[in-house]
Design brief:
7 helices, mainly alpha, about 140 residues
């Protein structure tokens, strides 16, 4: 049964990718391409692909995390872009700085939500970004 659910989820994601390519320039350049979205956590899918992905597994729960968590998934897009940029340290740094700013925003907004399920992940993501920034200075 789990395999069937996984297959159905992947098919739904593939359909969303097709439509997402049509408006990939959306969300001020933070919208992921199909290949970028494929590596994002499932809780980012509703934010980028809308109502095609309904259910708690496709979004960050606002009741337990607050409203500032909508910056976390774009931060992951920027981090992934930084980690795929090898030809220009300046571009890589730009992506990392943008990702850091968005993760810091998320952490500020989740301070009052200790039960937020992504808070620990966001803290680890910030540590990773800081480590990568130190490496390119």
């Amino acid at each position: 049964m789990t395999t069937l659910k996984s297959v159905v989820s992947l098919l739904l994601l593939a359909c969303a990718f097709i439509q997402a390519e049509a408006f990939a320039a959306d969300v001020e350049g933070w919208h992921p391409s199909a290949s970028e979205a494929a590596v994002l956590p499932r809780f980012c899918w509703k934010q980028f692909f809308g109502k095609k992905f309904n259910g708690p597994q496709f979004e960050i729960p606002r009741a337990t995390c607050g409203v500032g968590t909508n910056h976390y998934c774009p931060a992951l897009v920027m981090l992934n872009r930084a980690n795929r940029t090898f030809d220009s340290q300046a571009v890589r740094r730009k992506y990392l700085l943008a990702a850091r700013k968005k993760v810091q925003y998320t952490l500020r907004w989740t301070e009052k939500y200790p039960a937020c399920p992504i808070r620990g992940e966001a803290e680890r993501t910030l540590q990773l970004i800081e480590k990568e920034l130190r490496e390119i200075r």
